[in-house]
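Troubleshooting log. The previous run stalled partway through. Resubmitting the same two chains, unchanged.
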Amino acid sequence: MPKREPSIFARLIVLVSTALTTGLVALGAAAWYYALEAANQAYDRLLVGAAYQIAEAVTVQDGALTVEPPASAFELLALSARDRIFYRVTDTHGETLTGDDGLDRDGAAAAGAGPTVRDATFKGVPVRLARLVRIVSDPAVGGRVEITVAQTTESRAVLARELTLRATILLAVMSVLALGGTVFAIRYALQPIGRLAAALAERDPNDVSPLTIETPRELKPFVSAINVFISRLKARMDLMQQFIADAAHQIRTPLTALNAQIELLSHRVDDPQGQHHLSRMQVRTAQLSRFVNQLLSHAMVRHRAGVIPPGRVDVVATVRRALHEAMPETLGRDVLTTLELPSEPVEIAGDAVNLKEAVKNIIDNALRHGAPSRLALRLRECGDVVEIEVEDDGPGIPKQTWPEVVRRFGSPSPTGSGLGFAIAAAVAAAHGGDLGFRERDTAGFAVVMRLARHPEEIR
Amino acid sequence: MRIFLVEDTRDVGEAIVERFVRGGHAVDWETDGQEASRILESTSFDLIILDIMLPGRNGFSILQDLRGNGSETPVLVLTARSEVEDRIGALDLGADDYLIKPFDFRELEARARALMRRRHGDATNLIACGDVVIDRSGRSVRVGEREVHLKRRELTLLEILASRPGRVFGKEELLDHLFGFDEAPNVNAVELYVGRLRKKLEGARAQIVTVRGFGYQMLPHGQA
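Second attempt completed without errors. Output:
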């Protein structure tokens, strides 16, 4: 089984969705990065401000460094209620003067005088840490005093998340709008394909005129390729029809003349040996006639099945007519022929000529190979199926050869052409049915042709 | 009987003419369609045997004209054509029967005889005797619910007997109706056909009764 190809619509939607999702993830990540930067910048200012305020509070009293961090230094930081604040001030020897002793112990010495801000961990919690160096130039105590202020990062994270979320929502809304627009755009762009498909689907299968539908440039090669095929098909069909018509007339006419001359001769030959040869000629020409007729009939039903649009056919009348034509007036033996047909017409969509040909061939087969004394024609309606049954009291056909006899030349017999059932089977198939057999029982052997009542709408 | 044969193939025409002349009929033979059409305008026949592919004018068109002019002369069409593109068959155009070439000459004669006989029967379409109903236009015979197909000769015999239930028909009389003089059968042939007919009417509420030494009559059940 060939791999199922996804539709153009699905392909485009998958591609566009993938692009949009990738963009959404990348832009979301960028948004998160910028939001974090912005949050840090805002909060870092407060942190540095607090460091400066503490630094201002470092004084030398009585030759010793003292620091009394003003409450105002933490007021702004305290605005973010869920974060904790830590600080430490070191003296010129690097010993903790006040604050949390453990804060930024391993921090490298600040390089310049300006404040530095970085990420760190304190007591196992991530913190943002600002460090400021103040040079004390008192004669008693001189040197570097370091002020470190740290704050846990929860508020920043909350702010960053908030900003990212909003940005992402905007991005998502944009993506959904883009995807929706894409769906419309694809549907619009694919419309001509749908129109072309509909035009092809609505087309009568027997219509061999070129497609005239207007399509965009991209579809023109397909339409012209289809038209090339249609015109080639039409040429083939015309040739086939012409061939069958010519062959029928050109072969049958001289064959009839030959028959006629043999017939004339048969009254004029008295010599027994001559009569013997003449009768052999009669047998041979009869054989040839039958073969030609069946060959032409087979070609005809196959051709008609492809080109003749189905019409309203009364199966009852068709069966009667077929019997009338197939039952020779000159049949030597007496065959009791009964018809079990509905009294009302049974109509189906089909080809009357082909149906009659099929039934004629089944009856002809029954008379030729079976039916020593009895033939029954039945027509049954079973829901949407119409069954034509031809039963005879002959020997029947062995079950193992059933599949062969419906094939072309499947089981040639000395008197037949091996085409009778092939004709009937081809016609049954063209009518949405099949040709079957019923095993010989006490009633006899039966050939059953099943036909769909409405293979398609009657035109 | 006077037969008009329209056939352009000489070899075929010869044989048909000889066959029917041998059977005691008069045959006029024409090979051109146009000419045949002209002759049909002024002459009437008991049967027309018409080929389809003709020079001058095709058989279908001759047939259409004939029926258009109200003629009811039985027409037997001979055709070498394939119905490969036909929408309607020859029978729908007003032919009474048709044979596809090449045909069996005995079959042609049998069918032609049946058509000529039909023409001289009475015009009633439905004949009933007991539960045996003969539809002459549909050429079908019903026995109660059962429909039986009869050969033309059997049908003729049944028509004769059933059209006058109770009337006794002599064997010689039936013989004349059933066979042409050239066929020269004896009265045993009538017995044969009566036998076949009885078999096919088995179970009917009517029967063919033998009137010893004279002939046959058909009686609805209960009156025998």
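Takeaways: The radius of gyration of chain A is 50 Å. Chain A touches chain B through 52 residues (CB under 8 Å).
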